[in-house]
Design a protein that fits this description.
Layout: H1 2-9, E1 14-22, E2 25-33, H2 37-51
């Protein structure tokens, strides 16, 4: 599918496909991030430090 190609073009750092099923219906959820694990940790630290 085209979403994976577009995410690669957009330079997504990580892309995950999560399969879901309910009875005979099957769906997929695509999740992605543009942040590296280090950037995610820094964002988490700065974001949640403000909330306290």
């Amino acid at each position: 599918p085209g979403i994976y190609k577009e995410l690669q073009w957009a330079e997504a750092v990580e892309v995950k496909t999560i399969d879901m099923a309910q009875g005979q219906k099957k769906s997929r959820l695509v999740a992605w991030t543009f942040l590296s694990p280090e950037q995610q940790a820094a964002r988490r630290a700065s974001r949640w430090a403000k909330a306290k």
